[in-house]
Amino acid sequence: MSSARRVVRVDPLFFDELDAIFGTSRGPNGEPSSTDFLLIDLPFIAEAFAERFEEMRPLLTDRDDYRTLVTTGRLIKAVLVTGQEMADGSIVLLSIEVDPY
Question: What is the pLDDT of residue 71?
Answer without folding.
Answer: 94
